[in-house]
Specification:
- With 264 residues, the protein is of the alpha/beta class.
- The chain has 2 domains: 2-98 and 174-263, Rossmann fold; 105-173, no CATH class.
- It has 11 helices and 10 strands.
- The strands form 2 sheets. A 6-stranded mixed beta sheet has the order 6-7-8-3-9-10, with helices on both faces. It has a 4-stranded antiparallel beta sheet with strand order 2-1-4-5, covered by helices on one side.
- Helix 4 (114-122) runs parallel beside helix 6.
- The longest helix is centred in the last third of the chain and has 16 residues, at 188-203.
- The radius of gyration is 18 Å and the shape is globular.
- The model has no long low-confidence stretch (mean pLDDT 92).
- The structure holds adenosine-5'-diphosphate and magnesium ion.
- The site of magnesium ion has 3 residues, from helix 2.
- Adenosine-5'-diphosphate (ADP) binds at residues 32, 35, 37, 55, 57-63.
Length: 264
Amino acid sequence: MADAVRVNPYNPAENSKPVDELLKIQNITKKFGSLVANEDVTFSIHHGSIVSLIGPNGAGKTTLFNSISGYYPPTSGKVYFEGKDITGKPAYEICKLGITRTFQVVKTLKEMTVEENIMTGAFLHTGSRRQAQKDAAAILEMTGLSDKKGIKGGSLTIIDKKRVEIARALATKPKLLMLDECMAGLNQTEIKDVMNLCLRLRDEGITLLIVEHIMEAIMPISDWIVVLNAGKKIAEGLPQDIVDNEEVIKAYLGDRYNAESKKS
Ligand SMILES: Nc1ncnc2c1ncn2[C@@H]1O[C@H](COP(=O)(O)OP(=O)(O)O)[C@@H](O)[C@H]1O
Ligand SMILES: [Mg+2]
């Protein structure tokens, strides 16, 4: 299996290659009036890795996604993608460069079929309906939606809406895929499905930034974890170090991820 030979790009003990940064967030601050939603946040995402962003509700995780993806500009600080400054660029330009995000509240197009939903992503790169359909077919297969391609978005179950959301994002051919709480509301089997999909995407060369509360899901698949609390980065590190970090336990983990679950 690919996993047996894979090295975590974040673990210096395993990796002698130079750092290969895909995204760098430097001193990002975002204010809404007097509320500081992100304060001086800095971290990097290595090419080919899975990085998870965790922290309590209101910590500023979605706000950071919004600043990276061009939903709005940060108040100050810089976002570099493949070495280029993309700070404040419009969302469609950032998407075209290779960063795509999903939304915490799913935004399935209700009147369109699953296939058409996915094709809307493919139209970022092609004007041809035939090509978009071809791209969609491969993604339908990968996300387990092939037999539902004719169903309208509005009639789907929550897991399938989430699958469509990820599938549409994939159709834009992202280098960096950002998933905002895409496992929330799913059962154990469905969570396992999404975990496996994340690993598969990573193996295919897509870098992932994941916001998630389900520790049992993100600890095993993440190469690196960044922790936000009240807008500030309070820690970053390998998953095994984060679960033992006193400040992280106090601010967020508590007994959410205890010694027992660490063993399993
Ligand atoms: N558009 C906005 N206008 C005003 N305040 C906002 C806006 N978006 C987020 N906030 C505030 O910023 C803080 C961080 O929110 P958010 O990034 O959604 O947190 P998280 O995703 O970690 O739960 C919260 O206090 C939230 O109320
Ligand atoms: Mg959020």
